[in-house]
Amino acid sequence: MKTLKIAIQKSGRLNEKSVELLKNCGLNFENYKSSLISPVSNFPLEILFLRDDDIPEYVQDGIADLGIVGENVICETEVDVAYLQRLGFGKCSLKLAVPNQANYQSLSDLNGKAIATSYPSILKKFLADNNIQSEIRTISGSVEISPGLGLSDAICDLVSTGGTLKSNGLKAFGDVLHSEAVLIGRKGEENDPLIIELIQRIQSVLRAKETKYVVLNVEKAHLDEIKALLPGIKSPTVVPLAEEGWVAVHTVIPEKDFWGKISQLKAAGAQGIVVMPIEKIII
Ligand code: PRT
Ligand code: ZN
Questions:
Q1: 271 CA to middle of ligand 2, Å?
Q2: Whose CA is nearest to atom 28 of ligand 1?
Q3: Does residue 50 register a pLDDT over 70?
Q4: Is 80 helix (H, G, I), strand (E, B) or coil?
Protein backbone atom coordinates (compact mmCIF):
# COMPACT_ATOMS: atom_id res chain seq x y z
CA MET A 1 0.00 0.00 0.00
CA LYS A 2 1.15 3.53 -0.80
CA THR A 3 2.65 5.59 2.04
CA LEU A 4 2.09 9.36 1.99
CA LYS A 5 4.68 11.85 3.17
CA ILE A 6 3.79 15.08 4.95
CA ALA A 7 6.43 17.77 5.53
CA ILE A 8 6.17 19.91 8.66
CA GLN A 9 8.51 22.42 10.26
CA LYS A 10 11.29 20.74 12.26
CA SER A 11 11.51 23.48 14.88
CA GLY A 12 10.12 26.99 15.10
CA ARG A 13 6.78 28.69 15.39
CA LEU A 14 4.73 26.15 13.43
CA ASN A 15 6.27 22.92 14.74
CA GLU A 16 4.31 22.47 17.95
CA LYS A 17 0.89 23.29 16.49
CA SER A 18 1.54 21.10 13.42
CA VAL A 19 2.48 18.13 15.62
CA GLU A 20 -0.53 18.76 17.89
CA LEU A 21 -2.90 18.87 14.90
CA LEU A 22 -1.60 15.59 13.47
CA LYS A 23 -1.72 13.88 16.90
CA ASN A 24 -5.31 15.14 17.37
CA CYS A 25 -6.10 13.45 14.05
CA GLY A 26 -5.32 10.16 15.82
CA LEU A 27 -1.92 9.73 14.17
CA ASN A 28 0.61 7.92 16.33
CA PHE A 29 4.24 8.99 15.81
CA GLU A 30 7.34 10.00 17.71
CA ASN A 31 8.32 13.67 17.59
CA TYR A 32 12.06 13.14 17.94
CA LYS A 33 13.87 16.42 17.38
CA SER A 34 16.90 14.51 16.08
CA SER A 35 15.15 12.57 13.30
CA LEU A 36 14.28 13.80 9.83
CA ILE A 37 11.57 11.21 9.20
CA SER A 38 9.08 9.72 11.64
CA PRO A 39 6.79 6.87 10.54
CA VAL A 40 3.14 6.92 11.66
CA SER A 41 2.27 3.53 13.17
CA ASN A 42 -1.48 3.59 12.53
CA PHE A 43 -1.83 5.35 9.14
CA PRO A 44 0.18 4.94 5.89
CA LEU A 45 2.03 8.21 6.45
CA GLU A 46 5.56 9.41 7.17
CA ILE A 47 6.30 12.79 8.74
CA LEU A 48 9.27 14.72 7.31
CA PHE A 49 10.70 17.38 9.62
CA LEU A 50 12.17 20.20 7.52
CA ARG A 51 13.03 23.90 7.54
CA ASP A 52 9.86 25.75 6.60
CA ASP A 53 11.50 27.43 3.59
CA ASP A 54 12.06 24.04 1.92
CA ILE A 55 8.51 22.70 2.37
CA PRO A 56 6.71 24.31 -0.63
CA GLU A 57 9.32 23.14 -3.14
CA TYR A 58 9.46 19.64 -1.64
CA VAL A 59 5.70 19.38 -2.14
CA GLN A 60 5.78 20.88 -5.64
CA ASP A 61 8.54 18.45 -6.67
CA GLY A 62 6.78 15.41 -5.14
CA ILE A 63 9.38 14.65 -2.46
CA ALA A 64 6.51 15.15 -0.02
CA ASP A 65 2.81 14.69 -0.93
CA LEU A 66 1.61 17.21 1.66
CA GLY A 67 3.06 20.06 3.70
CA ILE A 68 2.11 22.40 6.53
CA VAL A 69 3.61 25.84 6.05
CA GLY A 70 2.83 29.57 6.29
CA GLU A 71 1.24 31.22 3.26
CA ASN A 72 4.03 33.82 3.40
CA VAL A 73 6.58 31.11 2.59
CA ILE A 74 4.42 29.64 -0.19
CA CYS A 75 3.95 33.04 -1.84
CA GLU A 76 7.63 33.94 -1.51
CA THR A 77 8.82 30.67 -3.08
CA GLU A 78 6.30 31.14 -5.94
CA VAL A 79 5.56 27.42 -6.21
CA ASP A 80 2.62 25.78 -7.93
CA VAL A 81 0.88 23.72 -5.22
CA ALA A 82 -2.72 23.00 -4.22
CA TYR A 83 -4.12 24.80 -1.15
CA LEU A 84 -6.00 22.02 0.64
CA GLN A 85 -6.98 23.51 4.01
CA ARG A 86 -6.39 26.68 6.03
CA LEU A 87 -5.37 25.61 9.52
CA GLY A 88 -6.12 28.65 11.70
CA PHE A 89 -2.74 28.90 13.46
CA GLY A 90 0.52 30.76 12.75
CA LYS A 91 -1.50 33.86 11.91
CA CYS A 92 0.54 36.93 11.07
CA SER A 93 0.73 39.76 8.54
CA LEU A 94 3.50 40.85 6.24
CA LYS A 95 3.52 44.60 6.81
CA LEU A 96 5.39 47.64 5.67
CA ALA A 97 6.76 49.63 8.61
CA VAL A 98 8.60 52.93 8.91
CA PRO A 99 10.39 54.74 11.78
CA ASN A 100 7.98 56.42 14.22
CA GLN A 101 9.26 59.89 13.28
CA ALA A 102 8.82 59.36 9.52
CA ASN A 103 6.06 61.50 8.12
CA TYR A 104 4.82 59.29 5.27
CA GLN A 105 1.22 59.93 4.25
CA SER A 106 0.63 57.35 1.56
CA LEU A 107 2.30 54.42 -0.16
CA SER A 108 3.59 56.72 -2.88
CA ASP A 109 5.91 58.30 -0.29
CA LEU A 110 7.93 55.08 -0.55
CA ASN A 111 8.96 56.00 -4.11
CA GLY A 112 12.73 56.22 -4.30
CA LYS A 113 13.15 54.85 -0.77
CA ALA A 114 15.00 51.67 0.32
CA ILE A 115 12.93 48.89 1.90
CA ALA A 116 14.61 46.01 3.75
CA THR A 117 12.89 42.62 3.73
CA SER A 118 13.30 38.84 3.78
CA TYR A 119 10.37 38.63 1.33
CA PRO A 120 11.73 40.24 -1.87
CA SER A 121 9.42 38.39 -4.30
CA ILE A 122 6.21 39.26 -2.47
CA LEU A 123 7.36 42.85 -1.95
CA LYS A 124 8.40 43.27 -5.59
CA LYS A 125 4.97 42.15 -6.77
CA PHE A 126 3.20 44.37 -4.20
CA LEU A 127 5.20 47.44 -5.25
CA ALA A 128 4.58 46.75 -8.94
CA ASP A 129 0.82 46.32 -8.32
CA ASN A 130 0.79 49.67 -6.53
CA ASN A 131 3.02 51.43 -9.06
CA ILE A 132 5.74 52.22 -6.53
CA GLN A 133 9.43 52.33 -7.40
CA SER A 134 11.49 51.51 -4.32
CA GLU A 135 14.81 49.81 -3.87
CA ILE A 136 14.42 46.37 -2.26
CA ARG A 137 17.24 45.36 0.10
CA THR A 138 17.09 41.64 0.84
CA ILE A 139 18.15 40.73 4.36
CA SER A 140 17.86 37.21 5.79
CA GLY A 141 17.05 38.11 9.42
CA SER A 142 16.62 40.92 12.00
CA VAL A 143 15.05 43.12 9.34
CA GLU A 144 13.61 45.36 12.06
CA ILE A 145 17.01 46.83 12.98
CA SER A 146 17.89 47.98 9.46
CA PRO A 147 16.31 51.50 9.58
CA GLY A 148 18.11 52.17 12.89
CA LEU A 149 21.41 51.15 11.29
CA GLY A 150 20.78 53.43 8.33
CA LEU A 151 20.47 50.47 5.95
CA SER A 152 16.94 51.26 4.81
CA ASP A 153 14.14 53.82 5.10
CA ALA A 154 11.43 51.23 5.71
CA ILE A 155 10.98 47.51 6.24
CA CYS A 156 8.58 44.83 5.06
CA ASP A 157 8.38 42.08 7.69
CA LEU A 158 6.09 39.65 9.46
CA VAL A 159 4.16 41.02 12.42
CA SER A 160 1.97 39.20 14.89
CA THR A 161 1.67 41.14 18.18
CA GLY A 162 3.51 44.24 16.88
CA GLY A 163 5.89 44.12 19.88
CA THR A 164 9.01 43.83 17.72
CA LEU A 165 8.07 46.89 15.64
CA LYS A 166 7.34 48.89 18.79
CA SER A 167 10.58 48.00 20.55
CA ASN A 168 12.52 49.04 17.44
CA GLY A 169 10.83 52.43 17.14
CA LEU A 170 8.85 51.44 14.05
CA LYS A 171 5.18 51.85 13.10
CA ALA A 172 3.11 49.76 10.69
CA PHE A 173 2.45 51.58 7.44
CA GLY A 174 0.41 49.10 5.39
CA ASP A 175 -0.52 45.45 4.95
CA VAL A 176 1.11 43.47 2.17
CA LEU A 177 -0.20 39.95 2.95
CA HIS A 178 -2.22 38.15 5.65
CA SER A 179 -0.92 34.69 6.40
CA GLU A 180 -1.70 31.57 8.38
CA ALA A 181 -0.52 27.97 8.31
CA VAL A 182 -2.07 25.98 5.47
CA LEU A 183 -2.06 22.37 4.35
CA ILE A 184 -0.70 22.17 0.84
CA GLY A 185 -0.55 19.25 -1.56
CA ARG A 186 0.84 18.35 -4.93
CA LYS A 187 -1.30 19.55 -7.81
CA GLY A 188 -3.26 16.64 -9.28
CA GLU A 189 -3.14 14.47 -6.13
CA GLU A 190 -6.15 16.11 -4.45
CA ASN A 191 -8.42 13.09 -5.09
CA ASP A 192 -6.11 10.51 -3.54
CA PRO A 193 -8.31 8.59 -1.03
CA LEU A 194 -5.64 8.77 1.70
CA ILE A 195 -5.32 12.54 1.26
CA ILE A 196 -9.10 12.94 1.38
CA GLU A 197 -9.22 10.83 4.58
CA LEU A 198 -6.51 12.96 6.19
CA ILE A 199 -8.22 16.24 5.21
CA GLN A 200 -11.51 14.97 6.68
CA ARG A 201 -9.77 14.14 9.95
CA ILE A 202 -8.11 17.57 10.03
CA GLN A 203 -11.44 19.28 9.35
CA SER A 204 -13.14 17.36 12.17
CA VAL A 205 -10.43 18.53 14.58
CA LEU A 206 -10.68 22.16 13.35
CA ARG A 207 -14.48 22.15 13.63
CA ALA A 208 -14.24 20.81 17.20
CA LYS A 209 -11.80 23.60 18.12
CA GLU A 210 -14.28 26.20 16.91
CA THR A 211 -17.10 24.92 19.13
CA LYS A 212 -17.90 24.05 22.75
CA TYR A 213 -20.33 21.44 24.07
CA VAL A 214 -22.84 23.06 26.41
CA VAL A 215 -25.36 21.46 28.78
CA LEU A 216 -27.83 23.68 30.64
CA ASN A 217 -30.99 23.33 32.69
CA VAL A 218 -34.12 25.33 32.00
CA GLU A 219 -37.75 25.37 33.02
CA LYS A 220 -39.95 23.95 30.26
CA ALA A 221 -41.82 27.26 30.15
CA HIS A 222 -38.63 28.95 28.83
CA LEU A 223 -37.53 26.15 26.49
CA ASP A 224 -38.72 27.84 23.28
CA GLU A 225 -36.72 31.00 24.06
CA ILE A 226 -33.61 28.88 24.69
CA LYS A 227 -34.13 26.87 21.49
CA ALA A 228 -34.45 30.06 19.46
CA LEU A 229 -30.94 31.01 20.62
CA LEU A 230 -29.40 27.65 19.67
CA PRO A 231 -29.09 26.65 16.03
CA GLY A 232 -26.77 23.68 16.97
CA ILE A 233 -25.57 21.17 14.36
CA LYS A 234 -29.19 20.05 13.93
CA SER A 235 -31.53 21.07 16.76
CA PRO A 236 -30.51 20.82 20.44
CA THR A 237 -31.09 17.58 22.40
CA VAL A 238 -33.68 18.07 25.17
CA VAL A 239 -33.79 15.59 28.07
CA PRO A 240 -36.31 15.66 30.97
CA LEU A 241 -34.87 16.20 34.46
CA ALA A 242 -35.98 14.32 37.58
CA GLU A 243 -37.47 17.61 38.83
CA GLU A 244 -40.93 18.08 37.32
CA GLY A 245 -41.21 20.90 34.76
CA TRP A 246 -37.42 21.12 34.06
CA VAL A 247 -35.31 19.88 31.14
CA ALA A 248 -31.60 19.66 30.30
CA VAL A 249 -30.57 21.07 26.91
CA HIS A 250 -27.43 19.71 25.17
CA THR A 251 -25.97 21.71 22.31
CA VAL A 252 -22.81 23.08 20.68
CA ILE A 253 -21.93 26.78 20.60
CA PRO A 254 -19.37 28.43 18.27
CA GLU A 255 -16.28 29.67 20.10
CA LYS A 256 -16.35 33.04 18.36
CA ASP A 257 -19.58 34.39 19.94
CA PHE A 258 -19.38 32.15 23.02
CA TRP A 259 -19.66 34.68 25.87
CA GLY A 260 -22.34 36.70 24.11
CA LYS A 261 -24.42 33.56 23.63
CA ILE A 262 -23.96 32.44 27.25
CA SER A 263 -25.24 35.85 28.48
CA GLN A 264 -28.29 35.54 26.22
CA LEU A 265 -28.97 32.00 27.48
CA LYS A 266 -28.74 33.12 31.12
CA ALA A 267 -31.07 36.03 30.43
CA ALA A 268 -33.55 33.57 28.84
CA GLY A 269 -33.60 31.40 31.99
CA ALA A 270 -30.70 28.93 31.58
CA GLN A 271 -29.22 27.64 34.83
CA GLY A 272 -26.38 25.29 35.83
CA ILE A 273 -24.56 25.81 32.54
CA VAL A 274 -21.75 23.25 31.99
CA VAL A 275 -19.25 23.83 29.16
CA MET A 276 -16.98 21.08 27.77
CA PRO A 277 -14.32 20.97 25.05
CA ILE A 278 -15.06 18.82 22.00
CA GLU A 279 -12.42 16.50 20.62
CA LYS A 280 -13.77 15.93 17.10
CA ILE A 281 -16.90 16.68 15.06
CA ILE A 282 -17.53 14.20 12.26
CA ILE A 283 -20.30 15.12 9.84
O1 PRT B 1 14.04 27.31 10.92
P2 PRT B 1 12.97 27.60 9.94
O3 PRT B 1 13.47 28.19 8.64
O4 PRT B 1 12.06 26.42 9.76
O5 PRT B 1 12.04 28.70 10.66
P6 PRT B 1 12.00 30.31 10.51
O7 PRT B 1 12.92 30.85 11.55
O8 PRT B 1 12.18 30.72 9.09
O9 PRT B 1 10.48 30.61 10.85
P10 PRT B 1 9.73 30.81 12.25
O11 PRT B 1 9.73 29.55 13.02
O12 PRT B 1 10.19 32.06 12.93
O13 PRT B 1 8.25 31.12 11.68
C14 PRT B 1 7.54 30.15 10.96
C15 PRT B 1 6.28 30.77 10.42
O16 PRT B 1 5.47 31.24 11.50
C17 PRT B 1 6.42 31.99 9.56
O18 PRT B 1 6.81 31.68 8.22
C19 PRT B 1 5.03 32.60 9.62
O20 PRT B 1 4.18 31.93 8.69
C21 PRT B 1 4.57 32.23 11.03
N22 PRT B 1 4.60 33.37 11.99
C23 PRT B 1 3.53 33.74 12.77
C24 PRT B 1 5.62 34.21 12.26
C25 PRT B 1 5.15 35.11 13.24
N26 PRT B 1 3.86 34.79 13.53
C27 PRT B 1 6.04 36.12 13.76
N28 PRT B 1 5.65 36.90 14.63
N29 PRT B 1 6.89 34.27 11.81
C30 PRT B 1 7.71 35.22 12.30
N31 PRT B 1 7.34 36.14 13.24
C32 PRT B 1 8.39 37.11 13.72
C33 PRT B 1 8.15 38.54 13.36
O34 PRT B 1 8.72 38.83 12.10
C35 PRT B 1 8.92 39.28 14.47
O36 PRT B 1 10.27 39.42 14.12
O37 PRT B 1 8.41 37.08 15.12
C38 PRT B 1 8.84 38.31 15.65
C39 PRT B 1 7.87 38.69 16.74
O40 PRT B 1 6.68 39.23 16.19
P41 PRT B 1 5.76 40.25 16.99
O42 PRT B 1 4.98 41.07 16.01
O43 PRT B 1 4.86 39.42 17.85
O44 PRT B 1 6.67 41.10 17.85
ZN1 ZN C 1 12.54 29.60 7.55
A1: 50
A2: 160
A3: yes
A4: coil
One-letter amino acid at 12 equals G
Q: Output 182 or 209, whichever has higher pLDDT.
A: 182
| Confidence label for 177 from pLDDT (cuts 50, 70 and 90) | very high
Q: How many residues in the chain? A: 283
The full set of domains in the chain, from first to last, is 4-89+180-208 (3.40.190.10), 92-179 (3.40.190.10), 211-277 (3.30.70.120)
For the stretch 80-100, pLDDT in tens is: 999 999 999 999 999 999 999
Q: Which ligand sits closest to the CA of 159? A: 1
Q: Which amino acid is at 179?
A: S
First-last CA distance in the chain: 27
Angle at 151 between CA 147 and CA 155, to 5 degrees: 50
The answer to whether the CB of 103 is under 6 A from ligand 1 is no
What backbone phi and psi angles, to 5 degrees, belong to 282? -105, 120
Rounded to whole angstroms, the Cα distance separating 97 from 153 reads 9
pLDDT tens-digit profile of 91-128? 999 999 999 999 999 999 999 999 999 999 999 999 99
For the Cβ of 162 lying below 6 angstroms from any atom of ligand 1, the answer is: yes
- The pLDDT, as a whole number, for residue 1 is 74
Q: Which of 282, 116, 105 is nearest to 208 (CA)?
A: 282
- Ligand 1 pocket member 93 (CB < 6 A): no
Ligand 1 pocket member 142 (CB < 6 A): no
Element of type H or E holding 193: helix 193-209
Whose Cα sits closest to atom 4 in ligand 1? 51
Q: Is 158 in the pocket of ligand 1 (CB under 6 A)?
A: yes
Distance CA 154, CA 163 (A): 17
Whole-prediction pTM: 0.91
